[in-house]
Amino acid sequence: MKLALFFINLLIISNVCSKKFSQLTKPNIVFILIDDLGYNDVGYHGSEIYTPNIDKLAREGVRLENYYVQPICTPTRSQLLSGRYQIHTGLQHSYIRPAQPLCLPTNLPTFADKLREAGYATHAVGKWHLGFYKKECLPTQRGFDSYFGYLTGGEDYWTHHRAGDGLLPNSNHWLGMDLWDNEKVAWEYVGNYSAFVFTEKIQQIVAQHPVEQPFLLYLPFQSVHSPLQVPSSYEERYKNIKNTNRRIYAGMMTCLDEAVGKIVHSLQQAGLWDNTVLIFSTDNGGEVAAGGNNWPLRGWKRSIWEGGMRGVGFVNSPLLPASVQGTVNKQLIHVSDWFPTLVQGVAGSSLDNITLDGFNMWKTISSNTSSPRQELLHNMDPWPNQPKEFNANISAAIRVGHWKLLTGDPGANNGQWIPVPDSGIIPIHPLKISGKDTWLFNITADPNEYHDLSTSHPEVVEELMAKLKKYYADSVPVQYPSEVEEANPAYHQGVWGPWQ
């Protein structure tokens, strides 16, 4: 009898342990998204900015050096969370403004939805910028168990207030608070610097999290987006930088680097790091008018030149095989690939036949195998005319193998190359050719886009134009409604929040 009870107890313990083990084998996921980080703004790319924690994580992980994001905030976030190109969400044009009745389509599942279905606790801390005009658009309605952050595209780092965009009469005077703790306004944090507040919130989540449940931490920091604001002690570290914008920006970046170090340390202290996959990414190229820099790449934020879209990114995890730790991965990877990579590749969960534009890149990253992606639609923006068929006047860019084709207006004043201020390097201003609407580059051989090959390879231009026409035929109309008076924070207790 005693022997039988012993084996029954052993079986019960075995079942409990196996359940815990199966849960623990689902890795925790930490996704750090940095706002307006330029290609030349991390130490490991040769920047003068001090980023030791980021550099260490990149050096010991897998650096993604053929990785692309979108040229601006909302489009990158929409593709990250939905796994769909902008042509399939209607968010092809610009970003969502505070008073626009627009958000990421609510019929699309997010990667947070799928990870929560797979048993993950899901938390978001930081910038949303995917629309908030109705409650159904909020992070807590889009797959996240908890949310702490701001809903618009940018605000004061200390007061957490912002004005409207000025597209409606006097809307640039619409001043409103925008900091939320789930679906409650977090007034108590006025006067506290956002990078510090966000880091403390993240540390609290980590410290309180039960080790037996996997979690997603989505951390879209406010840093280093304008306005250029940082505690003076960080700016003072860069007295040698004469350019004011670059000096403040450098201080902001070093402050952010400290936050990244604290997050990793908190995971280690909680015994969670060994079962965690950390992804680090920018959301678009650096804004040169606000201290960022993308040298030697061409262009900057908002442009479809490489400087607007070539992403700073890496993956670090103790779970990565030793053979890929400390390596550089040059396989083609896009921000839309994170949805299937995290849900299917890292979490081992089913995608349930969801239609996606992204590819599962986990084997590509963890085993350095060939990328399943050989083609990438960077974007096509027909706003405001939206003709029935694609033509070369439409701003668009596509990458197929080594080739990249651009049409229409690629932005960034015809694609300038802007060095770091006071570096002694003379900026390069390309000649603007009247009527020119097509450029072709071999990006592998010419990543800085110096040599336009459109006239010498017309057959490649024709092939890639045909692909753009196909994508356009499959696209949904651009959704870019006018701003509305009802969004004015004056009607909502001085707060930017849902108004429908």
UniProtKB/TrEMBL annotation:
Q: CDD domains per the record?
A: 4-S
What the record says about family reads: Belongs to the sulfatase family.
An example Pfam family from this entry, by short name, is Sulfatase
Keywords per UniProt: Calcium, Glycoprotein, Hydrolase, Metal-binding, Signal
**Domain (Sulfatase N-terminal) ranges:** 27-344
Q: Does the keyword Transmembrane helix apply?
A: no
User: What is this protein's name?
Assistant: Sulfatase N-terminal domain-containing protein
Q: Name one GO molecular function term.
A: sulfuric ester hydrolase activity
Q: What's the superkingdom here?
A: Eukaryota
Q: Which cofactor does it need?
A: Ca(2+)
Question: For this UniProt entry, which residues form the secretion signal?
Answer: 1-18
